[in-house]
Records
---
Amino acid sequence: MGSLVITETAIEAVKRIVGKTKGIITVRLDLQIGSCSWPSFGLSFDNKSANDFVWHTGNIEWVITRALLAKACTIKIDYFQGIQGERFSITSDYPLATTCLGCSTKCRNNLKLARGSLDALKSDG
């Protein structure tokens, strides 16, 4: 089973985003894919499910599917502020492709392959 490292700056950033929301806040760590990009880790507000592994930090539940956690090994969630703005940074031992040179036919075919890989990573099998 993999592990999750969440920095204090990431925890504080989520707290700022949700404001004075009462109760438990569930943040899902998942693989996401955009228009012409490769899979990358992302965060979203969601509900937990029976297949999730859950970490608690105060009133925040960080969830990830057990299958993805097993494949991704160690995952680190951090938050940065700088001259280029603010952002979450999610790194992992799991190698994800990071380049796509435009939206050529080759890129679109690679995107289909990436989506297939994404589905395989997200599945429990």
---
Amino acid sequence: MYEEELEVAIKVVIVGNGAVGKSSMIQRYCKGIFTRDYKKTIGVDFLERQISLGGEEVRLMVWDTAGQEEFDAITRAYYRGAQACVLAFSTTDRDSFEAVRSWKKKVEDECGEIPTVLVQNKIDLADHSVVEPEEAEMLARSLGCRLFRVSVKEDVNVGPVFRHLAACCLEEMHAEEEAMGMGGYQPPAISAFSLPVSPLHKGSKHHHHHHGAIAIKSRGRRIFRTHHAGKNMLRGACSII
């Protein structure tokens, strides 16, 4: 399989309180449309868009997740496997701004640390803002995220959000591939034996029993490369120990 036949597939999740514009952002970015009608997302939905970045073909699979607490158990399952995240809040909704930290934690609980951006939507309603610009900047710095101020309605700054995330993921992928070429990459390990428990973990919430279980430990997050024709995903190899 030749390199030019490959494209990169990146899963991006958009999280945040309900009615901040997550679904509208995906519709705007992937379909180029905007609708004023608000419909609550039930569970999850996703769209795709293919872009060219740095000479590479990148397929962004953008997942829209429900912001309501009643769907929490469903949406958490769909965070898994995400390679990038958008934390969204609304200029006119103070609660959505204050909930950003909890949304970031939910994603990290399932995915670990992944490239993440903070998005302030509805900047076209600046006259009704309940979030000061300095507050948004301070939050972005404290979270270690880049801040994007966008208007999905007016199509302002939406595309740069996803291009930035794609560029971050490509940078990680290339670093991993370079490490593999230099012999520095270690594939995930599979063990069919019970794992020892560190004395430090006994009695803690991290103390799990693995009797009779097969444990898979990943030593690195992989961005998928897919074949154009068959869309065959190439994942990191595993080693059996």
